[in-house]
Amino acid sequence: MVAFSAQGHLNPMLRLGKRLISHGLHVTIATTHLQPGRRLFKPSSSSSATGHDIDFLFYSDGLDGRKVDIDTFMDSLSQHGPTNLTKLIHQNYHTAPSDANNSTGTRKTRRRRRLCCIVSNPFVPWAANVAHDLGIPCAMLWIQPVALYAVYYRYYRNLNPFPTLTDPDLTVNLPGLPPLRTEDLPSFVLPTNTFGAFSKLFSEMFGAMEKHASWVLANSFHALEADVIINSSKDLFPVVPVGPLVDPSLLGKGEEEEADGAVNLWEVDHSCMEWLDEQAAGSVVYVSFGSLATLSADQSASLERALKEGRWPFVWVVKGTEAGELSTSSGGGQGIVVAWAPQTKVLAHRAVGCFVTHGGWNSTLEAVAAGVPMVVYPQWSDQPTNAKLVEDVFGVGVRVRENGDVKMVVGSEEMGRAIREVMDGPKSEQIKGNARRLKIAAGEAVAAGGEGTSKVSVRKFVDEIVGR
Ligand code: UDX
């Protein structure tokens, strides 16, 4: 598996890796060296039912630890990644089927194993070309909703009209999705997008995928996105949902952090768990904006005011890079602030009644799998579309708005309104009911020993790559 070295990309890769191991495959994750000062906190016990772990191998991004902007990083990665990854593969594996008889079982003899498939990540599109050059099949793991796959695909392949500088407010109508207004679209497809590196990346990705990928696997499940999955299969490169990759059966059993396969780029602070034990069921608001988004001082202040005024007990993840200093971090009894939480454990705790999130897809799916309703405060990338899905398609939460429209900085009154709506407002019973139903559906999609849609798809995928 070739992963982009970001938290939101490593977790789904590692979790899919766990599933593949449970089918008897050996899995290695290859990623670039982490930024200086970053460590990879792997689960303390990552052994699986088959008794072997996921290995990590690192290759150079060509920057030798230099800190650069994202455009330079992506350029260097696509320039040096293919050669360095190929070298790494040759050092560790055979790739010819005829060498399969030489394969043996222990970790020490990994160099004698046959590499039967590369699973790439959308942010390393060139990995599909590496697989092609080595003569092995390639699958791509799409780590966002299928809805986003459809939006990006149709945008980068010019299959539908999207907003332009001359028509910035165009509503986008795509098969299987509700009408998407500008504020519902991912920031990368807007005419105002300033992240050129990502546009280039997505174009390369769809090109490499159409040329060389045999499968596109998605971290989603049929019952969650049935309409867009069915409609996309009619005219787009087929996408196979294999999620939720976080394992719903482990959430709430106290062992999920080790067992669900997440890695952490920050050290996990468990101090909030004991505090949660003392709170009433469904009373706590959990606040986290994932690994990349940071709130401005104004955004933090509104949210803090809303929590104070609403008197909701809270757990708030503040990564230490946010603008301004949260006064709540000095205590006060109402809430607890941590630098990095054991998120799946927190979401599964009976005390948590609402998740205030940026709407990153991992966080969203983890909340769906745990049955926790959401208040979505999207910041960029896929998050506005995820917010639209949460509110209008899944019906498991609300999106914050200001003056009826979406704004980057929302006031404390609006934050308070949104949290109240989920906790005990007129729509809260409906939202909680939907969350309970989707939690069950998520569990059924992947249940061990079951015949859920995602479970069956993973089995088929394994059978196909092993059979090649
Ligand atoms: C990025 C993008 O920003 C997001 O929009 C896209 O959908 C995926 O890639 P990120 O912003 O990090 O991801 O958010 P998210 O997808 O939610 O992933 C964060 C991961 O970190 C989750 O798996 C979450 O469980 C974990 N996490 C977060 C923790 O373990 N502890 C924390 O305190 C916060």
TrEMBL record:
Query: Which CDD domains does this chain map to?
Result: GT1_Gtf-like (cd03784)
Which keywords label this protein? Glycosyltransferase, Transferase
Return the InterPro entries for the record.
UDP_glucos_trans, UDP_glycos_trans_CS
Report the EC number(s), separated by commas if there are several: 2.4.1.-
Top-rank taxon, per record: Eukaryota
Q: Which reaction does it catalyse?
A: an anthocyanidin + UDP-alpha-D-glucose + H(+) = an anthocyanidin 3-O-beta-D-glucoside + UDP
Gene Ontology MF annotations: anthocyanidin 3-O-glucosyltransferase activity; quercetin 3-O-glucosyltransferase activity; quercetin 7-O-glucosyltransferase activity
| Pathway(s) the chain acts in | Pigment biosynthesis; anthocyanin biosynthesis
Pfam families for the chain: UDPGT (PF00201)
Xref: PANTHER family: GLUCOSYL/GLUCURONOSYL TRANSFERASES, GLYCOSYLTRANSFERASE
Q: Which family does it belong to?
A: Belongs to the UDP-glycosyltransferase family.
Protein name, please? Glycosyltransferase
Native species? Linum tenue
